[in-house]
Amino acid sequence: MIKERLNILLVEDNPGDARLIREYLTEAAEPIDKLVLAKRLSEAIDALSAHAFDAVLLDLSLPDSKGLDTINRMRSSSPELAVIILTGNKDEQLALDAVHYGAQDYLIKDDINGNLLSRAIRYAVERQSYVKLQHNILVQAIEMMTFIVDKRDPYTAGHQKRVADIAKAIAQEMACPQTVIEGIHLGGLIHDIGKISIPAEILSRPGSLTEVEWLLIQEHPREGSDIIRNIQFPWPVADMVMQHHERHDGSGYPNGLKGDEIILEAQILAVADVIEAMSSHRPYRPARGLDAALNEIERQRGKLFKADIVDMALRLFREKGFVID
Ligand SMILES: [Fe+2]
Question: Sorting pLDDT into bands at 50, 70 and 90, what band is 30?
Fold first, then answer.
């Protein structure tokens, strides 16, 4: 649906450039309802929490932020906003990288005029609303898969969602790019999808498992990655699923991968998985509690789990008071 009038946030520290862009937009055919100017990224992020905007015109060299990190920080605070880079820098590689970081367009200040700019804004807003629609459908399809796993294993229902939330928060704490954070969250939602190939009575039975049953359970990462391997996610979801029980020192399963052989996303999921699993009740044991879970990952820092991920997880829970829903 095409919105009649647009609210635009202009992030530009150069007063001359800001004046020129304002003039372009005033004389252009495109109806702009509101144009707010921010001279710093921090000012822009404050403006985003105070008003609703359709698009942001973003300079990449601001007093408090430079380059691609500017897009990352902007999109972290407002992932649904159409971001249009408006810069003096004609670097083609930077332009492509900007699009990978989620910008909808990359315009050079010297090359624009009023009509071109206003049309670019309109198209960027439309593309962004289409991206949002597609993304919502993808998330809903993934949530359906989460639901199927939860239905078969009611004792751990909600586990995947909680792991996804914890992993996302750790990734945010580590200042990962927004696209990586999104991928970790969605991978977390289906990290145990391979459990649908394990007989339900094994999953939910109280008491310890036989060796054969344990071997069967250890197959769930491989089964899960086989199920989703042909879906062309824009993130390495099949590897996240395959590797979420691998351990930093090589003692995990199914392939005994070590250190950087394990993708970062899977290493973050592994820490989140252990925190959630230890804090929750299971049919074969009572909950051990969050403090015990945090002490355990601290004890295994640099051994089972990558040190910097453990540090971020501990900071998140102990210093920032993150709570598992
Ligand atoms: Fe698992």
Answer: low
Bridge partners, residue 287, by sequence: none
Cα of 270 vs centre of ligand 1, distance in Å, is 9
What is the predicted pLDDT for the residue at 72?
87
Give the mean pLDDT of 7-17: 95
Cα dihedral 103/106/109/112 (nearest 10) = -110
Q: Please indicate whether residue 303 is annotated as part of the active site.
A: no
Question: Using CA atoms, how far apart are residues 294 and 220, in angstroms rounded to an integer?
Answer: 25
Residue 26 pLDDT exceeds 90: no
Cα(116) to ligand 1 centroid in Å equals: 51
pLDDT in tens, 142-168: 999 999 999 988 778 899 999 999 999
Length of the chain: 325
In angstroms, the CA 309 to CA 287 distance is 23
- What are the structural domains of the chain? 6-130 (3.40.50.2300), 153-319 (1.10.3210.10)
Tokens of 305: 């789990």
Q: Cα Rg for the chain, rounded, in angstroms?
A: 23
Cα–Cα distance for residue pair 262/91, rounded to 1 Å: 33
Stretch 306-316: mean pLDDT, rounded?
98
Pairing of strands 65-66, 55-58: unpaired
CA distance 137 to 108: 33
Q: Are strands 55-58 and 61-62 parallel, antiparallel or unpaired?
A: unpaired
Residue 2 clears pLDDT 80, i.e. is over it: no
Q: Which of 195, 303, 306, 320 is catalytic?
A: 195
pLDDT in tens, 84-143: 999 999 999 999 999 998 899 999 999 999 889 999 999 999 999 999 999 899 999 999
Which ranges in 28-113 belong to alpha helices (H)?
A: 41-50, 68-77, 92-100
